[in-house]
Amino acid sequence: MLSPEIKGAVRLGEVVKSASTVCTVQCYQLEGAPPLGSFVRAGGGPATATADAVYGVVAAISAEPLEPGRPVLARGEAAVSEEEVYRSSPQLARLLTSRFEMLLIGRQAREGFQAALPPVPPRIHTFVYGCTKEEIVGCTERLGFLPLLLDAGSLASAEVVAACLRTAAEVYPDRGQFLLRAGRALAGELSGDLPALNSILRRIIL
């Protein structure tokens, strides 16, 4: 069961676009997007997952101009390294941003994590945090989130699903046992789509 008291969650950014199944999160730092498949939480605080907290998996990371109509121009022709480009143009950190899609997989309920979509999506400017190990266990120990993740459409690619399960496996004492349980759960959910199942399973064992 996921306890409402969580320690050490790091704030990554804010929700800038919100829907019932997916939110767009803008990161505070240009290089601040978490890896593909990471678990994140919208709502609550760094030490508390409140009743309105929503959990998700990171997909579709992008780095782009803050102003959509202002294209990014190459600046490194005379630079020795990529780091020099940023040192010589410090304003880039204010002109560019990183965003990611947060596929919703559950919410915080009175009894702990519940694999269900929230009645309403997170509001704009809701803070988004990276999940702690305890939160990841709470979200994944029963694998009830998998149907929601698999139903997310094109954003829930085989790569995203596999990355999510590999990330979750790292917080369990027996990584292999967790992946075995996950594989069996996937087989049940994708029994009618063997190509999709095999594609995910191949990536899980990387």
Structure description:
The protein has seven helices and seven strands; from the N terminus they run ββββααβββααααα. The chain is 30% helix and 25% strand. The chain is globular, with a radius of gyration of 18 Å. Strand 1 (11-18) and strand 2 (22-27) form a beta hairpin. Helix 5 (158-169) packs antiparallel against helix 6. It has one domain (11-204). By secondary structure, it is an alpha+beta fold.
- What composes the largest sheet? 6 strands, antiparallel, barrel
The helicity comes to 25-40%
Please give the radius of gyration in angstroms.
18 Å
Span from first to last CA? 29 Å
**Strand line-up of the largest beta sheet:** 1-2-5-4-3-7
Count every helix, treating DSSP H or I runs of 4 or more residues as helices: 7
Write down the domain tally: 1
Low-confidence stretches: 1-6
- What is the arithmetic mean of pLDDT? 91
Strands, count: 7
H-E order = EEEEHHEEEHHHHH
What gross morphology would you assign?
globular
Per DSSP, what share of the residues sits in E-state strands of 2 or more residues?
15-25%
Determine the structural class based on helices, strands and strand pairing. Answer: alpha+beta
